[in-house]
Write a structure and sequence with these properties.
The chain contains eight helices and 16 strands. The protein has helices spanning 25-29, 34-37, 77-82, 90-97, 115-118, 143-150, 166-170, 236-253; strands spanning 5-8, 11-24, 48-59, 64-67, 107-109, 122-124, 130-132, 138-142, 174-177, 181-184, 187-191, 200-206, 209-213, 256-258, 267-273, 276-281. The chain has a seven-stranded mixed sheet. Strands 10-11-12-13-14-15-16 form a seven-stranded mixed sheet. Strand 1 (5-8) and strand 2 form a beta hairpin.
């Protein structure tokens, strides 16, 4: 069984899931032909594959940091049906199972502002207004991503919903950063362009141990191979460059890596053999 909790130096890191959704298999693997990627994911009758909506909860003993908020509950019925979204118990339910509540979170990090990464940032209250889900948290977003989300291009306009992020500013809970930035001691965001122009990953470090959350730079373990780049990426050549850069660092420095959309694995390690990067999952002991 895949590991969903680990100790990283003085920190405890939990893998949480807001649920699952289904995306077009061809879009998830770009130029890679179906005859190759279907060996890893068998598509349904609509050529879709099941992807996970993974988040991280980082307990530093001083602060609680949530990375990604999933797809959330702000969903129209047609939209939910199109992606066959499954959300039980959802992110808040998983937090509760771990003994935490929304009010306990100090920081929320969004790698970027596409609907499947920040949909749980907000919810609609009894008055019908969208308000922050995590009332005591500061939300950390790249300045460039914020600007792009407010005025997206025609290619990725459907990926943004202002109800997921504009209320953060209205309630004074938004912090925009420009490039690499420390969130709290041991947790920093790292600019990793490619999927969007200002996509960020998350580096967690304690007692010399490092965990690196890939976001949509490498959405799942199946995307470790360098050419496996999503068609959703706005700048695929930049994705390729950053994939190689951070995978090399992961191998050289023995990082643990974490994935955003892997339906089986939260955590793993990377090795390199005969010029190819290989993934090894961190599993619970038998």
């Amino acid at each position: 069984m895949t590991l969903n909790k680990l100790t990283l130096g003085d920190f405890t890191v939990y893998g949480l899931r807001d649920g699952f959704f289904y995306l077009d298999g061809g879009a998830m693997f770009g130029v890679v032909p179906k005859v190759l990627w279907e060996k890893m994911y068998m598509p349904d009758s609509l050529n879709r594959i099941k992807m996970s909506l993974n988040s991280l909860l980082i307990d530093t003993q001083e602060k609680l940091v949530l990375v990604e908020t999933g797809i959330g509950e702000n969903l129209k019925e047609k939209f939910a049906r199109h992606y066959s979204i499954e959300r039980k118990p959802g992110l808040l339910g998983e937090l509760q199972q771990k003994g935490y509540s929304a009010g306990d979170i100090n920081y929320v990090i969004n790698t970027h502002l596409h609907f499947d990464h920040c949909g749980g940032n907000t919810y609609k209250n009894e008055q019908g207004r969208f308000v922050p889900t995590f009332p005591n948290a500061e939300y950390i977003i790249q300045k460039g991503e914020w600007e792009d989300a407010l005025d997206p291009g025609s290619r990725d306009r459907p990926s943004y919903d202002i109800n997921n992020f504009l209320p953060l500013k209205e309630h004074g809970q938004l912090k925009l950063v420009d490039g690499d930035s420390e969130v709290t001691e041991g947790v920093k965001v790292v600019l990793a362009e490619g999927h969007t122009s200002s996509h960020q990953c998350v580096k967690v470090e304690s007692q010399g141990k490092v965990l690196f959350f890939m976001g949509d730079l490498i959405p799942a373990s199946s995307h470790i191979h360098l050419p496996y780049v999503m068609s959703y990426d706005l700048y695929p050549v930049k994705t390729l460059e950053n994939k190689e850069k951070f995978l090399q660092k992961a191998v050289r420095n023995r990082w643990i890596i974490a994935f955003n959309h892997d339906p089986e694995h939260f955590f793993g390690t990377i090795s390199k053999t005969e010029g190819k990067f290989l993934f090894s999952p961190l599993n619970n002991p038998a």
